[in-house]
Amino acid sequence: MKNRFLSIQLPEDRPVEQRNALRIALFGFLASTISASFYLYLGIRSGDWQLYAWGADIFALAAAVAVGGALIRRGRISTGMWLIIWAAVISFVGTVLLIEGTGLVIGVGLGVLVAVIAGQTLSSDSAARAVRIGVTGAIASILLDQFLPPYRLPQPEATRTFLPGIIAAVILILGYVILRQFRDYSLRTKLLISMSVITALSLGAYGFFTSRRSAQSQAFLSDELQATVQEQAEQELTSAAAREADVAEDLLAQIPRSLQQLADYRAALYGQSEMLGAGQYWSSDSLAQFEGGQYGNSTSDIASAFLPAGIPLTESSKAEFNLSAYLDFVAPSFLDAHPNVVAVYYMLREGGITYYPNIDFVNVVPPDFDPRQGLYYTVATPENNPERKPVWTPPYEDPAGMGMLVTSAIPVYDQRGNFRGVISADIQLTRVTEQVANIQAGESGFAFLVDSAGRVIAMTDAGYAFFDLEPEIVPVDEIPKQTVLGLGSAELQDITQKMTQGGDGLARVTVEDVEYYLAYAPLESVGYSIGLVAPVAELEAKYLAANERVEAENKNTEQLTTLILIGVLLGAALLSQFISQALSSPLLQLRAAADQVTQGNLNARAPITSKDEIGALGETFNIMTAQLSELIGSLEQRVAERTRALSTVAEVGTSASTILETDKLLQEVVDLTKERFGFYHAHIYLLDGTGDHLVLAAGAGEPGLKMVAEGRSIPLDSEQSLVARAAREQKGVTVNDVTRASDFLPNPYLPDTRSELAAPMVVGDQVVGVFDVQSDLVGRFTNADVDIQTTLASQIAVAIQNARQYELANRFQQQYTLALEGSNDGIWDWDIANNSIFYSARWKAMLGYEEYELTRGFVEWEERIHPEDRDYAVKALDDYLEGRAPEYDVRIRLRHKDGTWRWIRDRGKALRRPDGTAYRMAGSHSDITEAVLQQELATQRARQQEALNRITQNIQSASTVEAALQVAARELGHALGSKPTLVEIEPGVMDKAA
User: What pLDDT does 9 receive?
Assistant: First the structure.
């Protein structure tokens, strides 16, 4: 069953307040239902209980609106509307208690909605109470939103447009209703609404732009502060990365320079190999061979000397060991100068090694340990280092048990350029790792160190967690396998790639939803890169704290501004009510006085309390009332005179309309006008056929007859004629003192004329003539007389036009009748649109009927057509009407009343509309029966004569009498339709012929 409550087609017999209330209930129910559904949908998506509660709150409002609508339909308008108003106030305030940031929109919407609803549906007193409730609810919503503690749900982004939109839509719809009925409101209500709207819009615009400007300023300052803090944090982190890289660089870069001095010293020893290689300082003869076949020296020596098993101790090897022993004078100083260096050693091309400090090398490493197989040797050989520059090995686990090391290796060449060995220094990375671990970036930041391949050299537990790695256990004498390349997000991968390429810089990366700064700088001498990682929030903590302080200060300012605006708005509302009362009070007094005047009290006067426009209006009203009192006294007399004049016009017009002869009509009009109006004279001029002259056609009394007999006329372009001017200007013209008129033509037959009125006789835009009346009194004619006589002139013009048309029609009728009587044809006239047809008397007489017969229209013609001719005739008529044939002209047989057939020539022409459709057709019937019969008889005689001639020719061509007789019999049979033919010859005829 269709819900009548939801029907927007409201019966017009309901009171206006009830119709408005039902519309408000309908729009409120739809808007609240849509809103509640939307908020519940958001609650389902987000799971926030505040959104569920918000949806339930609005659904409760929809239910209350539905109940209120039901009460309104039963006539309980006030109860229903109060239910809707209270439900709206409670629901809207409840929304502010649930959702943060909705106070302003809810407050404005609530205030406007309650004011509109109350103004459209409630009495004045009830509406005032409702408005106060709505304003209180609006202020409460705004203040609660400003001062409630932060337990509420921040307004979802989806509702920031939807909530104002749905409220604005309802306000616009109701505002449209107000605008439609605005003209029906009292002036006080109009003033109050107008001032309230202007004040609210002004304050709203001010508040909006102030708030917007404040928000923009806050955002600008916040952005500037954030940019400053961010720039400072980035600079600090970048500087820290560069500083730590410089520290590590200084720690490592000094070693290759000092090691280069050792390499140069060892190469110089080859220049004195004959003297120093003999073993005066230390002799390689002290080397002992151990069980594994390797050679080693005593632990009491400054350095360890070692030759792996399988390599013979030759004289050349002994000389090399003897020369290397001279490193005892410089190597210990090198180690003392570089605490991070755990060992420095020289590896011979032949496979031996001299190692500082003496760690009993022969018992630490395997017997077959060949140093030439290690990276610390191979990286510096000519094959891998043709440039002969210092090189670094990747980090590796020291076979001597010193932990993770990195080695700086330099090749040694003798004076002839022969490669003789590699001197290397092992740097223990523990100290570097401790340095990296001790780097502090923020509160929870960390540092890490990687080589050119991205392998992890030093990293804290936080770093392993950052890269999602586990600490690696590196086997002895092997390099780490774990690398940071290819780990993490695309941004992080890009940064680690730049680190391995020797780049420096700073970037932001996000790891597990936490944003970090990552600054990195290279250690150019070793190809390493150090990275510093710190959470953005920690480094920008100053900005966040300052921003919180700014937001708190802005919140306080916004609260104070809100209180001020509310106070200003309330003050403006009270002031608006006072001003509207002050402005409307004099008008109400003026209205009361006007009501008394309408009731017949012409002595009522409006009190004058000011000299402004309202006071001037009251004074004008009082003057008008006094004048009205005076005018009413003479009004009845003027009305009576005007009524008599109009009655006379009607009498003359009626008389003129009954006369169809133009001359008699004109004379009757001028005589009757002169008599009834008491004029001195009246006459009528008609425009001649050329349209250049006005010819006197009728005049009242003897003077008029004389002037008509003289054939007087006035040129239409005459400047000294009142009559001609009236015709040219097509309006009434008066001269109330002819003695002072330059265009008055005196007339000897009318010597007492003192004033004159000429009125044009016009039909449509066509001037027929001029109706001229004269008086023997000066100042006789008024504007009212001009109107009356112009009206009479128009009626006379119409009467003349009708008379002329009647005469013309009568003349045409006579000519038509003569034409019909002189013609022997019948006439028909067919109104196609109405399917009616006229048959003339002659048309009917042709078929033997009287004039009163054959009255059924088109069917009378169609039924009388010969069966053999009917299709042909109807088709010919259709082809012509449809435009397929250029004319309609047929010869058909029609049945006579006596049953015989008459040959008729039927012709006609049609009138067509612009689109070619025929709407009327007329034509004639001609009886051609005699002509057709004569034609048929002549045709028959011609055929007979032709047959006779052919028979004669054939007989003459026969050679014998018998042949001639046979030809005659045959031809006669053919001529008679192949009938048997017998030719008999009387006896004796042939003999006589012979």
Answer: 44
Q: Are 43 and 52 within 8 A, CB to CB? A: yes
For strands 505-511 and 514-523, give the pairing.
Answer: antiparallel
**pLDDT given at position 721:** 83
pLDDT at residue 7, as a whole number:
38
pLDDT at 331 over 90: yes
CA distance 383 to 812: 136
What are 472's two structure tokens? Answer: 């690696």
- The CATH code belonging to domain 645-811 is 3.30.450.40
Strand-pair partners of 347: 353, 422
C-alpha span between 81 and 251 (Å, rounded): 86
The answer to whether residue 842 scores a pLDDT higher than 50 is yes
CA atoms within 13 A on the CB side of 73: 16
Listed in sequence order, the DSSP H helices in 185-341 are 187-269, 273-276, 315-324, 331-337
Report residue 664 as tokens.
Answer: 């008699």
Query: pLDDT-derived band of residue 330, with 50, 70 and 90 as boundaries?
Result: very high
Tally Cβ neighbours within 10 Å of residue 167.
20
Domain 277-428 falls in which CATH fold?
Beta-Lactamase (3.30.450)
Please say whether the dihedral angle defined by the alpha carbons of residues 689, 693, 694 and 695, taken in this order, is positive or negative.
negative
Dist. CA 212–CA 480, nearest whole Å: 59
Burial class (CB in 10 A: 0-12, 13-18, 19+), 949: exposed
Q: How confident is the model at residue 371 (pLDDT cuts 50, 70, 90)?
A: very high
State phi, psi for 76 to the nearest 5 degrees: -90, 70
Q: Do the Cβ atoms of 324 and 263 come closer than 8 Å? A: no
Residue-averaged pLDDT of the chain: 80
Q: Read off the DSSP letter of residue 280.
A: S
Q: Distance between CA atoms of 844 and 852, rounded to whole angstroms? A: 9
pLDDT at 297 over 90: yes
Distance CA 443, CA 441 (A): 6
Average pLDDT over residues 745-760: 86
**Is residue 211 very low, low, confident or very high in pLDDT (cuts 50, 70, 90)?**
low
Please tell me the least confidently modeled range out of 37-41, 151-155, 383-387.
Answer: 151-155
The answer to whether the 277-428 and 823-927 domains have the same CATH topology is yes
| Cβ-based neighbour number of residue 182 at 10 Å | 13
Closest listed residue to residue 760, CA positions, set 734, 802, 726, 787? 726
Return the sign of the alpha-carbon dihedral for residues 551, 557, 563, 564.
Answer: negative
Choice between 726 and 212, residue whose per-residue pLDDT is larger: 726
pLDDT at 253 over 70: yes
Which residue is it, tokens 């006067």? Answer: 605
Confidence of residue 445 (pLDDT cuts 50, 70, 90): confident
**Which candidate, 654, 578, 651, 525, places its Cα nearest to that of 256?**
525
**pLDDT grade for 6, boundaries at 50, 70 and 90:** very low
Beta bridge partners of 889: 907
Q: State which CATH number among 1.10.520.10, 1.10.240.10, 3.10.20.340, 3.30.450.20 fits the domain covering 823-927.
A: 3.30.450.20
CATH topology of domain 230-246+433-542: Beta-Lactamase (3.30.450)
Say how far apart CA 203 and CA 566 lie, in whole Å: 9
Evaluate whether 345 touches 259 at the Cβ level (below 8 Å).
no
Q: Which residue has the higher pLDDT, 120 or 408?
A: 408
- Dihedrals phi, psi of 11, to nearest 5 degrees: -60, 135
Question: How does DSSP classify residue 398?
Answer: -
What is the Cα–Cα distance from 33 to 59, expressed in whole angstroms?
6
> What size, in residues, is the chain?
994
Domain ranges of the chain: 12-184, 230-246+433-542, 277-428, 645-811, 823-927, 945-993
What is the DSSP secondary-structure string of 956-988? Answer: HT-SSHHHHHHHHHHHHHHHTTS--------TT
Mean pLDDT (whole number) for 97-117: 81
